[in-house]
Design brief:
With 261 residues, the protein is α/β, with parallel strands linked by helices. The chain is built from 12 helices and 8 strands. The chain has a 6-stranded parallel beta sheet with strand order 4-3-8-7-5-6, sandwiched between helices. β5 (108-112), α6 and β6 form a beta-alpha-beta unit.
């Protein structure tokens, strides 16, 4: 797990109050030492999934770094006493790491999405960071892989020499995949969700002002209502209610402790 940063438990799941600078330095340090690690970028969706599924909560717990990808988690960290908490958003962390990897000569790979998205993504990154060494890019089929297929994927990733592997399978699949491959994939794995589509220009990102207001979910819901309605219209209100209860219990516990003194 990442050191030198504060962390808090939000509905039982650890979230690290990291920053782009800290996350990039930490990840590239692991990559330079060829360590097998994984990083989760957490949204409300991850937190509710972990709340409902103890096995997934353990996957999140075992991650080496859990960044607050969504503004609601940044606000939650601040309410839990980390006043300097800031957002570390997958679609922004990815280019930060690619730029630094290009400068340092660290080879990178991409796993997930579709062949068309990967083609556009790698072309866009080549234009932005010409020295970037993309040594692996693969789109798995939309079905579980056989043991033989999975072993072949691991062999190909390791043979490529990639030290950073960006994983775009979507939550919660990408976190489970990374946890299952820690110790097998010889790279730092980062589950960056929709970053592939955004950076490839296949989907529009919410304007920065909308992101700062914490309303990116509304923008994305309007863009993909059939796919995202359950995530945002069911899980977001649950998060507000459950986290409100967590804050209330925390305050009551503090009042009781104060009275005892």
């Amino acid at each position: 797990m990442a050191g030198l940063v504060e962390a808090r438990r939000i509905l039982g799941t650890r979230v690290d109050a990291t920053s782009y600078g800290h996350a990039a330095e930490t990840v590239l340090g692991w990559a330079g030492r060829r360590e097998s690690r994984y990083v989760c970028v957490a949204t409300v969706n991850n937190i509710i999934e972990a709340y409902d599924d103890p096995a997934y909560r353990q996957v999140m717990e075992d991650a080496d770094l859990v960044t607050p990808d969504g503004m609601p988690l940044v606000w939650a960290l601040r309410l839990l006493g980390v006043g300097a908490a800031s957002r570390v958003y997958g679609p922004d962390l990815t280019p930060v790491l690619c730029r630094r990897a290009a400068d340092l000569g660290v080879p990178v790979g991409f796993y997930g999405s579709t062949p068309e998205v990967l083609e556009d993504l790698t072309a866009a990154l080549a234009r932005r960071y010409p020295p970037l060494r993309v040594v692996y890019a693969a789109s798995p089929p939309f079905r579980p892989l056989s043991a033989e297929e999975d072993a072949r994927v691991v062999e190909q990733i390791n043979a490529s020499g990639a030290r950073l592997l960006f994983v775009g399978l979507g939550a919660p699949k990408q976190e489970r995949w990374m946890a299952a491959h820690q110790g097998r994939v010889e790279a730092v794995m980062l589950g960056v969700g929709a970053a592939f589509d955004f950076l490839a220009g296949r989907k529009r990102q919410a304007p920065r002002a909308v992101q700062r207001l914490g309303l990116e979910w509304l923008f994305r819901l309007a863009s993909e209502p059939r796919r995202l309605w359950r995530r945002y219209l069911y899980r977001n209100p649950r998060f507000v209610a459950l986290f409100g209860a967590q804050l209330l219990r925390r305050r009551l516990a503090g009042t009781t402790a104060g009275g005892a003194r």
